[in-house]
Amino acid sequence: MFIPTFIANQEFEPAQVKPRMFFYNGKLETTPYNVQGQRSPTVGTGDTINYYPYFDHYSTGSVSQLPNSGSDSLLYFNEGSSLGSIPNESIYSEYWSKYVGLLYDPKTRLIEGSAIIPFADYVDMELNDIVFFRGNHYHLRAINQYNLKTGECQLQLLGPIIDDSLDNQ
Question: Which pLDDT belongs to residue 152?
């Protein structure tokens, strides 16, 4: 039976970890074991059960009971999998790699400027929206010091935009 343990050092002392999210991947069969001292509606004291709940940083999907190369990952950089195989994609590669690539691209420029944005538009805007400013498209990085009365604010824009950003517009 696999029970995930977070260790702090080579002596296998337990690490104090902050709360984290896992995929619940159902129940996996295991060799039968006895449960002692537990009182619940489904499992009584002394009952023998042959499964355990399997949760992991990786999803199992609908085809397999174990993670595989196509599984989803909740990690920024995938680690070795205790069961199954390591997924090809991670949270970083799925959601952040293009943005971080934009930040560190030598062609990228951070533009700071002032603007007047009507309140109705301001409440609909989200970070990383594509905005058209002075004849060019940019990613919206921040709206600071927004004045509710006048609509005046300070903008931070990143450009040039990521390839394919305008395809869904």
Answer: 96
